Amino acid sequence: MDASNRLKRLRSKYRLVITNEDTFEEVITFKLNRLSVYIAMSSIFVITIIVTVSLIIFTPLKYYLPGSGYGNVKQMKAYRELKMRTDSMQIALDQQARFNEDIEKVLKGKFVNKDTNKLKLPTIENVDD
């Protein structure tokens, strides 16, 4: 086939008729040619690719793809768990530092007695046995 024959085949017109099976009534009619069908299918294909790539790039779906370089779900869970453990260790370290400071104040005698109620303890008598 030469180029002019192919061009004629691409531009030759076709009719696509959709009919109701029970009544044989024409529901819709399309006038198409091969070139318009090719362009429409190519456009749908390109749009599908663009939407898929956009979903992968701009959403967390990239973490679920193996070999994407973003890590997998298990690694992300491990990172979150390590972060929580690190945060709790930092809190414990801060509490320990405050405790040490308070003990140092008590040992140096620079503490404020915050007791508001004095306890009445019974006196211990020396009992000779």
Number of distinct helices: 3
**Total strand segments:** 2
Overall mean pLDDT stands at 85
Structural class: mainly alpha
Give the overall form: rod-shaped
Poorly predicted ranges (pLDDT <50, ≥5 residues)? none
Q: What strand order characterises the main sheet?
A: 1-2
Oligomer: single chain
Can you write the helix and strand succession as a string?
Answer: HEEHH
- Determine the N-to-C terminus distance: 129 Å
Total domains, how many? 2
Q: What's the story with the biggest beta sheet?
A: 2 strands, antiparallel
Helix share, percent? 40-55%
The portion of residues forming beta strands comes to: 5-15%
- Using the CA coordinates, give the radius of gyration: 41 Å
